[in-house]
Amino acid sequence: MVFFFSPSNSNLSWRxxxxxxxxxxxxxxxxxxxxxxxxxxxxxxxxGVEGSFYEDFAVRGIRVDRxxxxxxxxxxxxxxxLTDKSGNLAIGAVANLVDEVGxxxxxxxxxxxxxxxxxxxxxxxxxxxxxNDELEIVSKVLGRxxxxxxxxxxxxNKETGELIAEGRHSxxxxxxxxx
Length: 179
Prior knowledge:
alpha+beta
C-alpha cells in the first residue's frame, strides 16, 4: 500500500505510511533463532586440512551420484538448517546449490585451475521443496570458449519430479601456471 502526500488525502497518507513502516520494522526485528545464531563463535580453519563453517553448513549432505565429462548428478535430502520459516528450502540455499554444482562442471572438465569466478547466475524459482524432500541436482555444460564456461543446473524433487529451480551459471576459470 503506497500513498503519496497531497493536501486532499494528507491524513490518510500519513496513517498508511505509519502502518507500512510498522510492518517493515516488525519484519526486520530479530527473532530468537537469529539471536542464537549471531552468538556462534566460528573459529578459523586450516585450508585443505579441515572443513570450514561454510562446508559444514551449506554443502554437507550433497551426494554425488554420477560424473561424466560435462555432466554431474547429485542428490540432497533437505535438512532443517537450509529451510526458511515456512519449512521450505530457502531460496539462498537453492542459489548456493546452483553455484556449487554448476561450478563443479569446470572441475569435471579436467582443467588445471587456480581460480574459478562466477561471472553471472540466473535462477528461475519454479517450485518449493520441503524439509526432508530428496532433491536431484543435475548440472550440464552449455559451452566453453577459452577460460569462459557456462552450465545449466536443474533442481527437482526426486520423488515427484516437480521442477524446483533452473539456473544458468557462467564462470571464468584462470588456468594454472605451467611453470
